C-alpha cells in the first residue's frame, strides 16, 4: 500500500509533464527529437498506470477476504460485531479511503486515457517499422486492452470494489445478504455520527481524519446501494441518506465535490422512481 500511495503523490506532477511533452510532439509530428522526448516521458507513466491497474486486481482479492471475515458469522448486533472485528473494519476502511482518493485524482486528470492511447499508437507504429522500443514488453496488447477498459471508467477503483462486492454476494448465497448490508450500513452510521456530533468531531487530530471518515462513509453507501436489493435510497434502507448528505453539504465549500459527484453518478438506485424526492433534490448539482 505504501508504494501505491507514493506513486499516487507523484502522479499529478508526472501527468502534467507528459501532457506538455505530448502536446509538443503532436503539434510537430516531423520533429524526431520531440517524438523521442514524448516517448521517453510516456513510458514511465504507462508503467505507473499498469501498477495501479494490477493493484486494483489485488484490491478486489483483498476485499473478498475481508468481506468473508466480516460477514461469515451471524450476529445480533452489527455494532458489537464491528467492535470485535476492529482491525478488519479498519483495513476495510483504509481500502475505501484509498479507492475514493484515487478516483478523485483520476477524475481531475482526464488526459490519462489520451496519454495511454498515444503510447499504444506509437508502440504499434514502432512494431510495424521494426523499431525496438523501450517499454514494449511492459504492456502487451491483451493487457493494454484491459488497462484501457479500466481507465475508461470515471471511477475505476470504485467500480472494482462495487463489482467485487456484488460478485462476493452472488458467489456466497449461503450467507444472508443482511450480513453484508448490515456491516456496510453500520459503518456508514458510525462515520455519520462521528462527523456530525461535535463531541466526537473535536477529537479528530486533523482535517485528513475528517476526509478519511467522509470517504469511508460515501464508499460504504455506494457498495450498499449495489448489493442491497432496493438500494441505499429506499425507505427500507438502514442508512440515513438525508443525514449523510447533510453531513457532506455541511463541509467547507469545494472540499467534497468529488464525493457528492460519486453519490450522484456512480450509485445504482438514486434515479429509481421510488427514491425520495427530497433526497434527489439534495443531490442536485
Can you describe this structure?
There is one protein chain. This protein is mostly helical. It is 73% helix and 0% strand. It has helices at residues 2-27, 32-71, 78-84, 86-107, 112-128, 141-152, 156-171, 177-196, 198-201, 207-227, 241-249, 257-265, 277-282. Helix 2 packs parallel to helix 7 and helix 5 packs antiparallel against helix 6 (141-152). The longest helix has 40 residues, at 32-71.
Helicity range: over 70%
Spatial separation of the terminal alpha carbons = 34 Å
Secondary-structure element order, N to C: HHHHHHHHHHHHH
Taking all Cα atoms into account, the compactness measure Rg is 21 Å
- The count of strands amounts to 0
Q: How would the global form be characterised?
A: elongated
Q: What summary fits the major beta sheet? A: none
Structural class: mainly alpha
Specify the number of helices: 13
Low-pLDDT regions: 1-9
Indicate the proportion of strand residues: under 5%
Mean pLDDT: 84
Pfam family, one: CYRIA-B_Rac1-bd
Membrane topology: Lipid-anchor
GO molecular function, one term: small GTPase binding
InterPro entries: CYRI, CYRIA/CYRIB_Rac1-bd
How would you concisely characterize the structure shown here?
By secondary structure, the protein is mainly alpha-helical.
Overview features:
285 residues, mainly alpha, 13 helices, CYRIA/CYRIB Rac1 binding domain-containing protein, CYRIA/CYRIB_Rac1-bd, small GTPase binding, membrane
Amino acid at each position: 500500500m505504501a508504494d501505491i500511495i507514493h506513486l499516487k503523490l507523484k502522479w499529478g506532477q508526472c501527468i502534467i509533464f507528459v501532457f506538455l511533452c505530448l502536446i509538443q510532439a503532436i503539434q510537430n509530428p516531423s520533429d524526431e527529437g520531440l517524438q523521442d522526448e514524448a516517448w521517453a516521458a510516456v513510458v514511465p507513466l504507462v508503467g505507473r498506470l499498469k501498477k495501479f491497474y494490477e493493484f486494483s486486481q489485488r484490491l478486489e482479492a483483498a476485499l473478498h477476504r475481508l468481506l468473508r471475515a466480516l460477514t461469515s458469522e451471524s450476529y445480533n448486533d452489527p455494532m458489537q460485531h464491528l467492535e470485535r472485528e476492529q482491525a478488519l473494519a479498519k483495513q476495510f476502511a483504509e481500502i475505501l479511503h484509498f479507492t475514493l482518493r484515487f478516483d478523485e485524482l483520476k477524475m481531475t486528470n482526464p488526459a490519462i486515457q489520451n496519454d495511454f492511447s498515444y503510447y499504444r499508437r506509437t508502440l504499434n507504429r514502432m512494431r510495424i517499422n521494426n523499431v525496438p522500443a523501450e517499454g514494449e514488453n511492459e504492456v502487451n496488447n491483451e493487457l493494454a486492452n484491459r488497462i484501457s477498459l479500466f481507465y475508461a471508467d470515471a471511477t475505476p477503483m470504485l467500480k472494482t470494489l462495487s463489482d467485487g462486492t456484488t460478485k462476493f454476494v452472488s458467489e456466497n448465497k449461503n450467507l444472508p445478504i443482511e450480513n453484508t448490508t448490515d456491516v456496510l450500513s453500520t459503518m456508514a452510521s458510525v462515520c455519520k455520527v462521528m462527523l456530525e456530533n461535535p463531541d466526537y468531531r473535536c477529537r479528530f487530530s486533523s482535517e485528513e481524519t475528517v476526509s478519511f471518515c467522509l470517504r469511508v462513509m460515501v464508499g460504504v453507501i455506494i457498495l450498499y446501494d449495489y448489493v442491497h436489493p432496493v438500494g441505499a435510497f429506499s425507505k427500507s434502507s438502514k442508512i440515513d441518506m438525508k443525514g449523510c448528505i447533510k453531513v457532506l453539504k455541511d463541509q467547507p465549500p469545494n472540499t467534497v465535490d468529488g464525493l457528492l459527484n460519486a453519490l450522484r453518478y456512480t450509485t445504482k438506485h438514486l434515479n429509481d422512481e421510488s427514491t425520495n424526492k427530497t433526497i434527489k433534490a439534495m443531490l442536485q448539482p
